[in-house]
Amino acid sequence: MDELDWVKSADAPKDYAVDEDWRSVVGAYDDIAYGYKNGLVVEKPFTPPLPALPDNLKAISEQVKAENFTYTYQMIVAPDDSSFEALWQQLVERATGMGAETVNAWVQEQFEISKSDGAKYMK
User: Fold this and answer.
1) Which residues contact 82 (CB under 8 A, 6 or more apart)?
2) What is the dihedral of CA 85, 87, 89, 91, to 10 degrees?
3) Which residue, 61, 53, 2, 3, is CA-closest to 27?
4) Which end of the chain is more exposed for a tag (fewer CB within 10 A), N or C?
């Protein structure tokens, strides 16, 4: 039995012939087991939750979020690609001017710290 197999309870529906046929062809119980068996599943590193944003960065994040909401709607209803691109550039400029890169840098730094802390829990 594959480590990803599970034992069905007595009241579970029986497998169809196509299920059994698929398993015999691919050599795995289900698509998840097939993915693991063939190296198709990528496990991300365990990371404990990030700390809350400091108040100064939270304020920036909320401002950028509000701008993003407004511009996203405008971009969705933009009549053509050039209007969309112009709105996108305005959003990027406004978010950058508000300090979005500072928030992003802090989150990336905290993620690396968290990933390092979580490494001891990985295999």
Assistant:
1) none
2) -140
3) 2
4) C
Identity (one letter) of the amino acid at 102? T
The closest alpha carbon to 76, from 64, 91, 63, 60, belongs to 91
Write the DSSP symbol of residue 40.
Answer: -
Contact 98, 64 (CB under 8 A): yes
Provide the terminal-to-terminal Cα distance of the chain, rounded to the nearest Å: 22
Rounded alpha-carbon distances, angstroms, from residue 5 to 19, 29, 34, 119: 14, 6, 11, 27
| Amino acid making up residue 13 | P
Tens place of pLDDT for every residue, the chain, 123 residues? 454 456 777 888 888 899 889 999 999 888 888 998 998 987 777 778 889 999 999 999 999 999 999 999 999 999 999 999 999 999 999 999 999 999 999 999 999 998 888 888 776
Residue 102 to residue 29: CA distance in whole angstroms = 47
